[in-house]
Amino acid sequence: MQKLDFKNLLKDGKIRNVIIICGIIGIALIFLSSFIGIPDGTEKTASNVSQYKEQMQSSVQQMLENIEDVGRASVLLTIENSVEGVYLENNSTKTKEIEPKIRGVVVACSGGDDPIVIQRVMQAVTKALNISTAKVYVTKLQE
Q1: Is the model more confident about 141 or about 97?
Q2: pLDDT at residue 26 greater than cutoff 90
Q3: pLDDT value at position 12?
């Protein structure tokens, strides 16, 4: 049995050229992978968060407009993070999705200058979204 000698193999021009070409192809593939758009789900997640935010704002607005003396209402929610998926150990099976956390809420309503209305709005928003009163601001809606 003959022992392989890498020095002799590298002296042969064909094998050396094959190794160099393979190296160049590998580098080119790595370089091109940064330009090729491989979908990673971030656009879908951003869309989901946007839809979640709009849905929550609309739901809170409708709820507030049904409270006595609130009148017309406008709601702005700020979101702390995106949707998170919880996976099994093999990272292939999603077990659940954690909704984004609400960072804060601003409510502008027609009755926003009345302390009783402000208290009702604060209680409704904090209970509905399970957040503290420190994360809610209520003001009078400019009409």
Answers
A1: 141
A2: no
A3: 66
Q: What is the pTM of this model?
A: 0.61
What does the alpha-carbon distance between residue 72 and residue 64 come to, in Å, rounded to a whole number? Answer: 8
Q: How far apart (Å, rounded) are the C-alpha atoms in residues 88 and 20?
A: 42
Count of all residues that appear for the chain in the document: 143
| Residues 60/106, Cβ–Cβ less than 8 Å | no
Q: Which tokens is 17 given? A: 């050229």
User: Would you place residue 65 in the very low, low, confident or very high pLDDT band (cuts 50, 70, 90)?
Assistant: very high
Distance CA 101, CA 80 (A): 5
Helix axes 115-129, 42-65, angle to 10 degrees: 140
Cα 114 from Cα 92, distance rounded (Å): 53
Element of type H or E holding 137:
strand 136-140
Number of other residues whose CB lies within 10 A of the CB of residue 20: 10
The CB density around residue 56, as the number of other CB atoms within 10 Å, is 19
| Amino acid letter, 75 | V
How far apart are the C-alpha atoms of 9 and 103, rounded to whole Å? 64
Q: Are 49 and 80 in contact (CB under 8 A)?
A: no
